[in-house]
Amino acid sequence: NAGVTQTPKFQVLKTGQSMTLQCAQDMNHNSMYWYRQDPGMGLRLIYYSASEGTTDKGEVPNGYNVSRLNKREFSLRLESAAPSQTSVYFCASSEAGHRGPSPLHFGNGTRLTVT
Amino acid sequence: AQSVAQPEDQVNVAEGNPLTVKCTYSVSGNPYLFWYVQYPNRGLQFLLKYITGDNLVKGSYGFEAEFNKSQTSFHLKKPSALVSDSALYFCAVRETNAGGTSYGKLTFGQGTILTVHP
Q1: Which of A27, A48, B53, B91 to pair with A5, CA 20 to 30 A apart?
Q2: pLDDT digits (tens, 9 = 90+) for B15-28
């Protein structure tokens, strides 16, 4: 049981390049999330998907797009990377997108540097 | 909008001593509160949560947290710290919209680095 798997673990991009961060969970969770972690700022929600077929903006969606490919997979795309997007990106999933405070299960993160 | 504050960037404690990591929150309704721990180069791991009921919540690895509604606080505690407890700790509050549904959108505090000295 792998939980939440993110690829790649590390990535260096030049300004203007594009890339997709991949995330997959094997826990049959309905909801999936993308967060970014920056020093001194905690985790900030980029996008989330309450259930398969739906996506919504979080706190910091600008410069990103997402795709909920199926129940297992939720990808994050940077169309034109900027230095401000240098961060550690975490994917997470939870059991229920609706009522009930289910804890989030996190992947191990993708460390992205944009030069 | 809800918010979470962790007033201490760092907490240092000697092994065997009790530890407290502080958290205060602000929400318009009733809060769902969480503590997570992050070890180096890893994702966050769930420690415990408060939903309703008893103000003292017990979680993983001997941690507990005390919910205080009048002080809007949810401090993390452990009676006897271990060196292996050294990590980054996050408090989080769960958003609930007007309809009472909740999509797991957590608002996190900025984190507190806990260092336990041998």
Answers
A1: B91
A2: 999 999 999 999 88
